[in-house]
Amino acid sequence: MTSQASEQSRVKGTGNTLPSRSESYSIPSDERLTPDKEASTVQKVNEGLFGKFLPRTQTLVDMANRTLPSIILKRKSIREAADEIDKTITELNLAVDIDDYRLLPGGHWIPLSCNPRWKVAIVVPFRNRFHHLPIFLRHIVPLLKRQKLEFSIFIAEQRNDERFNRAMLMNVGFVEALNFTNYDCVVFHDIDQLAINVKNYFGCDNMPRHFISGEAIWEWKLYYEDLFGGVTGLTKQQFYDINGLPNIYWGWGGEDDEFANRVKAKDLKRSRPKGEIGYFDSIVHERNESSPFNEARFCLLGNIGQRRTTDGVSNLRYEQPTIELHPLYTNISVNIQKLPWNPRWKRC
Q1: For residue 107, which of 175, 57, 146, 171 has the smallest C-alpha distance?
Q2: Tell me: the pLDDT tens digits for 107-127?
Q3: Does 240 map to a domain?
Q4: Per the structure, how many domains does the chain have?
Q5: Entry pTM
Q6: CA-based nearest residue to 125, from 153, 162, 85
Q7: I need a labelling partner for 91 at 20 to 30 A (CA). Which of 64, 120, 179, 255 fits?
Q8: For residue 187, what is the domain's CATH number?
């Protein structure tokens, strides 16, 4: 990965397999995904997923990275008239066919055996979870390929030592992903979440959608019923309609609840898979890897109405990110900073 994200398990109480103590857990074997949470590297994952196609894939990725700065510069100069980045990469003949998929540098998979109904961007807010990244990629890529989706994976990396701002990174990932391809929807996916049922469909149906109905660490239940975090999807238009996510949550907590509130305020009905279809396992991490609590979160949540239309995609500003293509993902490394405080908002 670029910048900090160059390549540098158990689930609590469950071990590496699904819990046998849960008698209600009965996903048929052809639908069940057993997460492999053993430590690995991105290179080893590439070798496992690409096999004999890896040398050719890596060559095309390297060529695309050399061309990418000029593509981005051209897009900035002609703006609305610019082609999507992936269209330009395709015209340069930098795609490789692997089994029944065509792969563009940066982890954009296009099925060859069918006309995909949806184009899906998976946006992952990220900082310092280097050991989680290969586990996540090893799990999610085969899942999405089995669902015959056209999809790409974007790692939105915070490139500074400020408190982690998950929501702002999701906004950045959304905006930058649409420069590559005109996706139908975006799934915001925490890197430690691993779906365990192939029927948990990541297409753009029934959105807004919260993909989790139960977690291993919560005894296959939700932490609370209105939870709208972890793995969440919206169509492109829905995300614009709710003005994206708030940019002012620095540190852990609060942004998911405001996310849910914005969806409800627009009378958008959230969907969720039922029962075992929406079960997720997770990769635990040490406490010192977590972002500090956001002490202002309760004050911010108490004044959501003031900011819905003025804090989000509408006021998003950030430095030009460093973008690097990899075989399985596109890394968007960005130095996000606090935005000016609107005097109409209550200061927290």
Answers
A1: 57
A2: 999 999 999 999 999 999 999
A3: yes
A4: 1
A5: 0.91
A6: 153
A7: 120
A8: 3.90.550.10
